[in-house]
Amino acid sequence: MSDFEPVDLQRMPDYTRFEDASGLEYEVYGGESRLSVAFEIAANSTAVVKLAEGLIRSFIKFDGVYAANHCEVLASPEDDGSVSLIRYSFESASDPHEFGYTYYDVYVALRDPPSPRFHPTKFVVGFW
Description:
This protein has about 130 residues and is α+β, with helices and mostly antiparallel strands. The protein is built from two helices and seven strands; from the N terminus they run βββααββββ. It has a seven-stranded mixed beta sheet with strand order 1-2-3-4-5-6-7, covered by helices on one side.
């Protein structure tokens, strides 16, 4: 595992929850191999969150602030290689309530060199 130190680590069979130093909450489904993935993402959270937010911003052109609220590490990789998702909320600059019911999940895959390690694969728009 990485040198990452989780905050408020809570472990149960096939489920782990913790936070990173910034307060981003992580939920991990599966065993030790999934926890290793979570710790790698958390150790690089600033870069991963920025990369994932960049994917949203390339499609959604409203001015405002995105906030990463949650990272879920999936129990197994999806067919496209996604191993985790980061959930974002958005506050519009023109009306803070305009998108209050909307969330954005950005799925992230891990790649081997020479590709960049973290790669956003897709995003899903959801409604509360």
